[in-house]
Every structure is written in structure tokens, then in C-alpha cells.
TrEMBL record:
The keyword Transferase does not apply. One of its GO terms (biological process) is recombinational repair. ATP binds at G93, D94, P95, G96, I97, G98, K99, S100. InterPro entries: AAA+_ATPase, DNA_repair_RadA, P-loop_NTPase, RecA_ATP-bd, Ribosomal_Su5_D2-typ_SF, Ribsml_uS5_D2-typ_fold_subgr, Rubredoxin_2. The gene is radA. This is DNA repair protein RadA. Keywords: ATP-binding, DNA damage, DNA repair, DNA-binding, Hydrolase, Metal-binding, Nucleotide-binding, Stress response, Zinc, Zinc-finger.
Length: 433
């Protein structure tokens, strides 16, 4: 680091520089260099550095290979089986999405865990645990923000799991900047990283997110941890998804599905049942499809509504689905299936609050729109899968066999797509599928 009075730290990559620049020389991001005072101590002594002897890799201890279950089958699934000894994980999400609720439940489930909060007092955590129906005596808690006191406590108590809520409230007195600043987040993250490796204790860091949805603080924080997870969902809906975006000890294609109830987050072991409403399937405009999120297939319900427009510019509204993709499907329906909707408002909704980016539901959405417009009902046990091309053809989506197995496992009929969308609509309308 520079020895001048000030230096400049990049909020994206965490590199520091001796002078300001409009563009970071490290990551090439614009307007990310922030000025900080150089607080490096002048009393630092140079140390003699001795060479070390390289060691040959040997088989690790079975105790260290054994993963620690979080007590939640869905959280374990997102972590590819649980927490690894000595690992450090970062959990982010919007305010009020359920991060602290999930962590309190994990602290209750893992015996010998230590919950450290810089945001809430012991009384507040006790009230939360009581509301969730948890036993207070099973949760060890301290309210502390000083990383050196926390480090001494961990070294003395040697807990089985440590939860830090949140990394943005932690502070290292060696750096007088305010908690949550780039320097504090980086330095505190390094302290916890060393603690996890030194004592072989898994540590979960809860992180705030910016308005863009990224973890607040320097990007280097995500580089230094072993696992990065995000809690996704909408605060007014009960569906929550824990999605892993980085994982050194497993796949990033796994997700955990939860339902937020009054007594906490509950694992959705059968998510298909959560998204299906048998009553709505008996009305025009509803259809079933199956999506793949990560490596996980589950059945969802799509709803469509067409209404005569009172405007010269009909509305195209989509909730949980790409609006541009909806416009493309409407053009295909008009040109290839001869269903004109130029004078109708079209509304699409993915039931359950999901945001779907899987093009495998194209055919189901097209059928739901045609069903609403023509006032006919799609068979309620029919699961429609297929991607629509501009020529009106239907293509099999990725992981087609995985989707088919899930549909058949739940007792539904997997619609084997004909070659064109017009043929599919004709067969479904007649019920000859």
C-alpha cells in the first residue's frame, strides 16, 4: 500500500492505488476509486521471513471431510450437502427477505454454534427466536462488533459454527474508518477468513446488498470467501429461493426452496405442489409447465388473460416473465397460429411469485393466451413444455428427460410436442393429447 497520506480504493475489485483515476487500472470499472486516509502504523517492524518446506498432499481427516448439516434440507441442498469445516460462506439478500430468520434457525439447529450480531441486542434475538418457536437455551449469542474481541471469543470457546450478522457492522480498531466502509469490510473479512482456516470452524457472514442487488462492500469480499449465496424473493410473497453463485466445494447449479411462514422459513421438499392451484386450472387461461432451475425440475402454473383494449396501444403486461419474450410469442401466435390479439390487452402471470427465464415454458404461455382468448380450458393434468421458434415450430428444451421424469413422478401427463404451435393448440383444444 502507498505510504502517502491518502490512497484510493476500488469499490469493485478492492485494489488500492496512490492516485485517483476515473477508471480503475485493475478491473477497468469507471468511477469506483474512493479516497481514504492512510492509517498504516509507523511503528511496524520488519520481520525476518524464513522459508518453509513444501508438504506433499495427503488424504484429509475423515472428520474434516464430513459436512455439517444446517438443519434445513433445502439450505443443505444449496450448499451441496452442508457446510465444510474451515469454510467461510457469504449470505446476501434484500432487507426483510429472511436472512436473519434463516440464520437464527440454523444457529438453533446446529448444536454448539455461536450467533454474533452487530445489529440486534440479546433481547431482540430472543424475541425473534420465541416468535419462531425455538428453544432459547439452544442458541449461544453475543452482541459484538469488535473483530478482535470476536476472534478471542472464537479461539476460547471453539464453537462448531459461527454466524456473523452482519459483516457490514463489524469493525477493526486498527482502521479508524466507519463500519461498513470498504476498508472495514475488507479487513474484517480477512480476519474471519484466517479464523475459519486456523480453527477449522465454518463461518457464515450475512451481507447487506446494494440497490443493484450486489453484496455491499468491495468485490474482493466475494473472492476471499468459499461460498456466496443469495436469498431471493419478494417481501409480500412467501416464496424464497436460496441461490448459490459461487461454491468451491460443490455445484452452483443447486438451489434451496423455502416458504416464509409466521414461524420462520420452511423447506419446500415438493415445490410443484406449492405452485399448483387445482381450482384455477379449471378456468380458461391457465396451463401447467415444468421448468429447470439449477438442476431442479418443478411444475409451475402460468396464467393468461386477454381483454378488449380501450386504447389504441394494447397493454402487454408480464409478471415473472420477460415482457420482450411475450411480445415475440404474440407475434408468433398471430402469424403462425392465426390468432390476432392486436386489439386486446394481454396479461401474463407466473403463479407463486417466481421469475422464470426458462424458454421451455413458451408453448404453455402461448396455450394459456389462446385458451383465454378462445374461452376454452386446457386439460388440468396436462403439462405443456416446448420452446417456440419464429417459424412457429416447437423445439424440445434443455434437460427434456429430467422434466419428463418429474411430470410422470407426480402423476401428470407430459405433452409430447408436435412440430408446430398451431398443431399443438388444435390438439389441446380438442383434448386429443
Amino acid at each position: 500500500m502507498a505510504t502517502k497520506d491518502v490512497y484510493y480504493l476500488c469499490s469493485e475489485c478492492g485494489n488500492d492505488f496512490v492516485k485517483w483515476s476515473g477508471r480503475c487500472p485493475g478491473c477497468r470499472a469507471w468511477n469506483t476509486l474512493v479516497e481514504y486516509k492512510n492509517e498504516a502504523s509507523s511503528t511496524k517492524k520488519t520481520r525476518d521471513h524464513k522459508a518453509v518446506i513444501p508438504q506433499v498432499l495427503t488424504q484429509s481427516s475423515p472428520e474434516l471431510e464430513k459436512r455439517i448439516s444446517t438443519g434445513s434440507s433445502e439450505f443443505d441442498r444449496a450448499l451441496s450437502g452442508g457446510l465444510v469445516a474451515g469454510s467461510i460462506a457469504l449470505l446476501g439478500g434484500d432487507p426483510g427477505i429472511g436472512k436473519s430468520t434463516l440464520m437464527v434457525q440454523v444457529a438453533h439447529s446446529v448444536s454448539g454454534s455461536l450467533y454474533i450480531s452487530g445489529e440486534e441486542s440479546e433481547h431482540q434475538i430472543a424475541l425473534r427466536a420465541k416468535r419462531l418457536g425455538l428453544k432459547l437455551e439452544r442458541i449461544s449469542f453475543i452482541a459484538q462488533t469488535d473483530v478482535h474481541i470476536i476472534a478471542a471469543t472464537i479461539a476460547t470457546q471453539k464453537p462448531r459454527l459461527v454466524i456473523i450478522d452482519s459483516i457490514q457492522t463489524m469493525q477493526d480498531d486498527a482502521f479508524p474508518s466507519t463500519p461498513g466502509s470498504l476498508v472495514q469490510v475488507r479487513e474484517c473479512g480477512l480476519v474471519f477468513q484466517r479464523l475459519a482456516k486456523q480453527h477449522n470452524i465454518p463461518i457464515i457472514l450475512v451481507g447487506h446488498v446494494t440497490k443493484e442487488g450486489n453484496i455491499a462492500g468491495p468485490k474482493i469480499l466475494e473472492h476471499m470467501v468459499d461460498t456466496v449465496c443469495y436469498v431471493e424473493g419478494k417481501s409480500m410473497q412467501e416464496m424464497r429461493i436460496v441461490r448459490t453463485t459461487k461454491h468451491r466445494f460443490g455445484s452452483t447449479n443447486e438451489i434451496g426452496l423455502f416458504a416464509m411462514k409466521n414461524n420462520g422459513l420452511h423447506s419446500l421438499t415438493n415445490p410443484s405442489a406449492h405452485f399448483i392451484n387445482d381450482e384455477s386450472l379449471q378456468t380458461p387461461g391457465s396451463a401447467l409447465s415444468v421448468i429447470i432451475d439449477g438442476n431442479r425440475p418443478f411444475i409451475i402454473e402460468v396464467q393468461a388473460l386477454t381483454a378488449k383494449s380501450v386504447s389504441s396501444y394494447p397493454k402487454r403486461t408480464a409478471s415473472g416473465y420477460d415482457a420482450k419474450r411475450l411480445e415475440l410469442l404474440l407475434a408468433i401466435l398471430e402469424q403462425r397460429a392465426h390468432i390476432s390479439l392486436s386489439e386486446y390487452d394481454v396479461y401474463i402471470n407466473i403463479v407463486g411469485g417466481l421469475v422464470v427465464k426458462d424458454n421451455g415454458i413458451d408453448c404453455a404461455i402461448a396455450c394459456a393466451i389462446a385458451s383465454s382468448h378462445g374461452k376454452w380450458v386446457v386439460p388440468e393434468k396436462l403439462c405443456i413444455v416446448g420452446e417456440c421458434g419464429l417459424a412457429g415450430e416447437i423445439r424440445s428444451p434443455l434437460n427434456n428427460e429430467l422434466r419428463k421424469n418429474e411430470v410422470e413422478r407426480l402423476g401428470y401427463t407430459y405433452f409430447t410436442q408436435p412440430k408446430t404451435l398451431s398443431d399443438a393448440l388444435r390438439l389441446i383444444k380438442k383434448g386429443t393429447v
